[in-house]
Each structure stands twice: as structure tokens, then as C-alpha cells.
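Design a sequence for this backbone.
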């Protein structure tokens, strides 16, 4: 049994083949019956042509049915495909009744498809998203492995809040119903871990420990944020890639981020050409040109302070008025990358109040050695920084922010023993996917999105 992607590539005309897949459409003319067969190995269908006398065995070969078709590959007389299958037999493995199968041949809205996430992978759009997602995951590993980075598995359950930003999902085995009814306060010493535990919001703190042992490391795994924001950019469960490099500064970090993004874009353009052509045509016109131009560009750099000056020139154009000290909103980020720079831009040296405690304090004592990579249409795609590697300064920041010193004792140890400058960043995998596919809603670039009030399937 062969994959359609290989059949269409090799075009072994004259060969007898057996192909399995799902019927996209069946169409009858006076002289023949056509089945468009898709097996998900590529975007293209294999056109299978039957004699009209085969009508009986094709009765249940309706849109959505799983079938096994045997025939001979021939050059296609018609336009649209180089080869087609002159089919002699069709076995219906699993029918899909026309009156109940929801994916009949017609345009479906993305909202509707979200409500049938268990079937949407059988559409052109979601098949393409899944293939590109797979390719991007492979590219991520290839990029780092080729450069000698070690893949580290950081824990999913954690007792420390990395960002200090809250928004964590609690993990507990306590019987909350019973405790609530009893009116007693919760006794976490009785909980599974003997203390409150959460799903991780980032693997960074843990991966830093391996960075300061193996020099170049990365994580790539699920992260969780209980963000109560119903946006097209936020999920409650998303995947993040976090490289961390030792004996490195922000400059090295920015170079790595730029190389990484460009590598991923080039990979997508080369390895996912058919799927990207689909996205370019149907989802985001100009997508391929845009990705190609980013791939060929040099990322601009601008300090947060200068970025705010640029934003202030356009004060009235924003919902949130920009000022020095404000957190950059997506509208600000997009203005910077789309209007001021017209390409990817790395914003550096943010006010320390806006960033996490572990970022390296600059000499001005006001800003930290942080960087966000902003790209057109998306805004922030990467957030990173040089880490505070000076023990005293880090301890000072932890105290200043009122964080639990004890909980971070192991993290502080990294600065007590063999500390070294190091830096890293986080790339949201689904943000990358939105960027590469042109899909608007982040819920459409992950198979089963988890967001506020949404955890079906
Ligand atoms: P934003 O301001 O867009 O919410 P952030 O500043 O909270 O992002 P970081 O904490 O720096 O993001 O996380 C690193 C990266 O993870 C971000 O650059 C982004 O690509 C991604 N990311 C963050 N939050 C989410 C989310 N809820 N869903 C999907 N990706 C996310
Ligand atoms: Mn956020």
C-alpha cells in the first residue's frame, strides 16, 4: 500500500497500486465515476477513475468514507494532475453516511470546524496545519541538534512560579468539595506534594541548571497559563521552545533568535511548499513573499526607550497611550514592526518593573538586559534575556519583589557555585505556527486548543 505523496512524486505510470484513504468527493459523469482520494500524506488528492459499471461497489464510497482502491496509474489526460488511477476495485472500509457526516463538500467556517475538532484534521486547512506543525517541530530539533544543543526535559508539575506572575493552574489531589463543605482551611501538608503545586508556566528556571552544566541546552514542551484572556494569541496550554546558552550575553542571544527564526522560515518554505501555497492562496495572500522577505532581512534593533519615543510620535493612534514604563501592547508592538521598521525588530532593555526577576540588571539600575522579537502581523513572538548571574544582585531583586527566598534557594545556588553569564529565550510554538501558516486564531494551529471555557475533546 502506498502513500499518495509518494505516488504523486514518483509517477510510476503503468504500475498497479493499492491505495487507502478517505473520499473527498465522488462525482459521476456519463462516461466515468471520479473519486478524489486523500490520505493526509500531502495536500493533493489522487484522482481515481472508475467505469460507470462500477457504480454498485461505489455506492457507499461517499465523502468521508475510508476506502481501499486498486488500479493502474496512468498519465492524466485532464489538467490539474499529472497522473490518475484507473481503478478496478474499491472496498469501503468505513462508510460515512451523507445524512450524518458533518464534513460534506462545502465551505465550513473555522468556528464550526473548532466545534468538531475530532474531525477537522480531514479538511485541507487542518491537514495542512498538522503537516506544517510536524515539520516545524522537526526543524526545531534539527536546528538545535545540528548546533550541539542538548534537549532537556523539564518538569511539568512545579512548586515554583517562574514568572512570579500568577496565572497558574493548581495541581491537587485534595477533595476540594469535602474541604469546602467542612468549612476547614485547606491543609496543603495533606496534599500530594505536601505543598501547593502547579502546572509549569515555563521550563526556564529548571533548564538554567542544565545550561550551567552542559553549556547549550533547550526545552520543547507544553506550558500552561491560566490567562483569563480571550484573544487569538493566547492559549491555556501551549508549547514553548526555550534555548539557554552559557558564557553568553544578550548579543549572542539575539543572534541565536534571529538565526533560529530564519532557519524555521526557510525550512517551512522549502519543506512545506505545497501547504504554504495553499495558505498563501486561501488564508493569507502574500504569505510566501512575506516569509521570504523576512528570511532575507536583517532584524532591526531598537531599545525600549527609543521604541517608546517612536510610539509617542503616534500617540493618538493608539487605544493605550504609550509612555516610558508602560508595557508594550500588541497594538504598539505591531506599529513598531509594521510601521516604524517594516520588518522584524528586536526591542531591548525594558524597564525592570515590566520584566521577570531573573533578568540581568543593566548599569543604569532601571532597565534589564531583555529582548523581545517582534514580527509583522503577530507582534511578540519571542521573549528572552540575559540572566542575572550575580548572586547579590539576584538576591536583592528577589527581596525587592517580595518573592519567597526559600523557594528559590536552588536557583540562587546556581549563582553561588560556578556562576557564569548566560542567556536564553522562549518562542511560543503556536505563535510561530500562526506566523508561518497565516492562520489568524491560535486555536486553529494546535490540534485540541485549551482556553477559557474550552477543554473539549
Ligand atoms: P504576551 O505579552 O503576548 O502575553 P508574554 O510576555 O506573556 O506574552 P512570555 O512570558 O515572554 O510571554 O513567554 C514567552 C513566549 O511564549 C512568548 O513570546 C509567546 O511566544 C509565548 N506565549 C506566552 N503566552 C502565551 C499563551 N498564553 N499562549 C500561547 N503562547 C504564549
Ligand atoms: Mn502573557
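Sequence:
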Amino acid at each position: 500500500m502506498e502513500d499518495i505523496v509518494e505516488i504523486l512524486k514518483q509517477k510510476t505510470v503503468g504500475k498497479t497500486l493499492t491505495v487507502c484513504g478517505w473520499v473527498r468527493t465522488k462525482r459521476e459523469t456519463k462516461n466515468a465515476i471520479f473519486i478524489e482520494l486523500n490520505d493526509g500524506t500531502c495536500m493533493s488528492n489522487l484522482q481515481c477513475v472508475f467505469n460507470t459499471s462500477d457504480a454498485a461497489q461505489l455506492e457507499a464510497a461517499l465523502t468521508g468514507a475510508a476506502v481501499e482502491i486498486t488500479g493502474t496509474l496512468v498519465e492524466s489526460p485532464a489538467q490539474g494532475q499529472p497522473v490518475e488511477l484507473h481503478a478496478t476495485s474499491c472496498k469501503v472500509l468505513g462508510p460515512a453516511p451523507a445524512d450524518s457526516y458533518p464534513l460534506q463538500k462545502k465551505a465550513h467556517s473555522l468556528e464550526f470546524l473548532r466545534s468538531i475538532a475530532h474531525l477537522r484534521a480531514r479538511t485541507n486547512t487542518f491537514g495542512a496545519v498538522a503537516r506544517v506543525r510536524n515539520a516545524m517541530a522537526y526543524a526545531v530539533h534539527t536546528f538545535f541538534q545540528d548546533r550541539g544543543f542538548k534537549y532537556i526535559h523539564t518538569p511539568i508539575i512545579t512548586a515554583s512560579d517562574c514568572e512570579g506572575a500568577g496565572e497558574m493552574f493548581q495541581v491537587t489531589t485534595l477533595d476540594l468539595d469535602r474541604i469546602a463543605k467542612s468549612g476547614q482551611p485547606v491543609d496543603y501538608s495533606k496534599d500530594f506534594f505536601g505543598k501547593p503545586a502547579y502546572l509549569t508556566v515555563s521550563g526556564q528556571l529548571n533548564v538554567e541548571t542544565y545550561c550551567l552544566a552542559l553549556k547549550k541546552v533547550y526545552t520543547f514542551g507544553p506550558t500552561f497559563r491560566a490567562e483569563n484572556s480571550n484573544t487569538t494569541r493566547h492559549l491555556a496550554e501551549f508549547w514553548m521552545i526555550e534555548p539557554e546558552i552559557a558564557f553568553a550575553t544578550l548579543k549572542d542571544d539575539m543572534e541565536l533568535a534571529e538565526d533560529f527564526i530564519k532557519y524555521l522560515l526557510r525550512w517551512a518554505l522549502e519543506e512545506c511548499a505545497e501547504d504554504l501555497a495553499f495558505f498563501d492562496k486561501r488564508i493569507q495572500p502574500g504569505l510566501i513573499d512575506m516569509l521570504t522577505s523576512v528570511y532575507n532581512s536583517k532584524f532591526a534593533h531598537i531599545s525600549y526607550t527609543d521604541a517608546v519615543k517612536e510610539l509617542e510620535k503616534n500617540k493618538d493612534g493608539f487605544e493605550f497611550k504609550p509612555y516610558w514604563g508602560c508595557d508594550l501592547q500588541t497594538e504598539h508592538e505591531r506599529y513598531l514592526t509594521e510601521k516604524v521598521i517594516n520588518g522584524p525588530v528586536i526591542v531591548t532593555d525594558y524597564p525592570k518593573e515590566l520584566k521577570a526577576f531573573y533578568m540581568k540588571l543593566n548599569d543604569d539600575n532601571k532597565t534589564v538586559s531583555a529582548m523581545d522579537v517582534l514580527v509583522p502581523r503577530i507582534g511578540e513572538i519571542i521573549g528572552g534575556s540575559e540572566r542575572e548571574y550575580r548572586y547579590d544582585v539576584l538576591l536583592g531583586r528577589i527581596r525587592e519583589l517580595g518573592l519567597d527566598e526559600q523557594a528559590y534557594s536552588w536557583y540562587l545556588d546556581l549563582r553561588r557555585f560556578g556562576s557564569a553569564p548566560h542567556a536564553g529565550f522562549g518562542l511560543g510554538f503556536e505563535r510561530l505556527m500562526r506566523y508561518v501558516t497565516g492562520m489568524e486564531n491560535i486555536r486553529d494551529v494546535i490540534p485540541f486548543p485549551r482556553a477559557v471555557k474550552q477543554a473539549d475533546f
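The mean pLDDT is 95.
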